[in-house]
Amino acid sequence: MSYALGTWSLDGILAGETLEQLISDVRQKARIFASMRQSLHANMSTSKFNEILSSIEGIQELLARIGGHTSLVYAQNTQSEEASALKTRINQITSEIGNDIIFFDLWWKRDMGDDDAGRLAESAGDLADMLLHKRRLARHSLKEGEERIINLLDVTGASALVKLYDMMTNAYTYDITLHGEQKSLGREELMVYVRDADYGTRKTAYDALLDKYSKNRNILSEIYHNIVLNYRNEFVSLREYDSPISVMNAGSNIDDSTVDALLQVCSKRADTFQRYFAKKASMLHMKRLSRYDVYAPMTDLEKSYAYNEAVGMVLDTFYKFSDVVGDYAKSVFDGGHVHSKLQPGKMSGAFCSTISPKITPFVLLNYTGESRDVFTMAHELGHAIHSIAASPKSILVQHAPLPLAETASTFSEMLLFDVILDKMDASEQVSVLAGKMDDLYATIMRQAFFTQFEIQAHQKLSEGATAAQISDVYMQTLHEQFADSVYVSDVFSSEWLAIPHFYHSPFYCYSYAFGNLLAASLFQRYKREGSDFVPSYLGILSAGGSRKPEDLLHEYGFDIGSATFWQEGFDYIDSLYSHLNTAV
Questions:
Q1: Rounded distance, CA 235 to CA 250, Å?
Q2: Are 67 and 359 in contact (CB under 8 A)?
Q3: Can you give the pLDDT at residue 301?
């Protein structure tokens, strides 16, 4: 097939029904579910218990279709007043339905002994681990009335603040002069130029971005400050989590000690990228890189890829690895589930949206033809592959926990990189290897230090820190990760305001470091075992969120709680750096 830049088709999400009909249906299901409240007791039959779980799945399926359709409509034009108003309305409805059924969650966590809970959970198959994990989190639950209040207030609280941030920043345009020509660009178009071969162009692009956020620092920092305080008030003060990052860890069913080991190793191995940046400076005939130069290409001959060519490269890579994986990826394109072209108001970046096990995932791209766009395509298709592999699971456990959610996406990038590298001569390899090192810095070291920044920012804002003081904390983390290898000017002190994940999903960023280093270990095993590795890979993906990450990966020979494991992930990076030195 031939593939062209275009938009997605969302018709299948509603399955021929109107949004209003689905809303009516889910409200009716919630009312029926509420009538089951009287049947909840510790010695209930396993058949009745599984009937209740099935009802929850049906409600979540409808909510996912309603919310998924609305979110995708909003993503394709965040400046649409109608889409924005509808998104707010659906968030309100979702909170109301959540309140109608929350009694089951609270009953399950609190109102029975471990023996009865174990008996019922064991009967639930793939849901067992999730159900028992909920009981382990029981101490963080509040009374039903309190939970209902929090659900309702979130619509006009933190969620509203995040939406306000998105509406403001997605509307920004950047007026710059390049090569004597005045341009007015959106963020995605602007960020193309931070990887330009010309220093002046890179600096102009960065300065335009950071100046816009700096000028709006008062309001953007106030939004962030309130998100952080809301997060601490609910999760630390009321729910009594040990720390803000523990909320993310617990939600992903992963131990604090595992994440601590990851972050500590990343901090200790910062010298890996510092050596690379010193080498890159030499290759670019500079004494030292500045922050403007971190993503500078090795050549000004950046190859452009037509969209159809890029799709072919990505699909060929997946099919070379596994026909099953190739078919999964192809179904996303063939189903019209990719929005690839640039358009005003469209959400920046890229994402994969998994709505339910019954619906092929949707992928948003902002495709400009750069080589990094091809890798972004592989990355987001990796997410889709992960979801499709886990589609036999219940909607309640299809989604992998966040640290594992980046595994298939980054593994897919590594597959593509390996295929492309083999087809290049030494001079081309230098450019591509350097680009890969740049990307690994961006997705491992940068993300780990983002998380270190968030840990400090959350603490300092709870103590009354100002926006200027948070900027100082951000600059400190930049100096720690670069040391003397890169000069960082003060203009980058406002960069933290431009990182959407800080607002959308506190502490999500370490998931990228987690996923990349885990994928590196998986990829090294694949290189050793060849096609014999494929069943293990698909086994990990097909588990979705049904298993605790430490337990799942231990089954396949990975001890992610060990610092040694994360050190081994850097072996892959060291091998690429050695390859680069050889190719120079």
A1: 11
A2: no
A3: 62
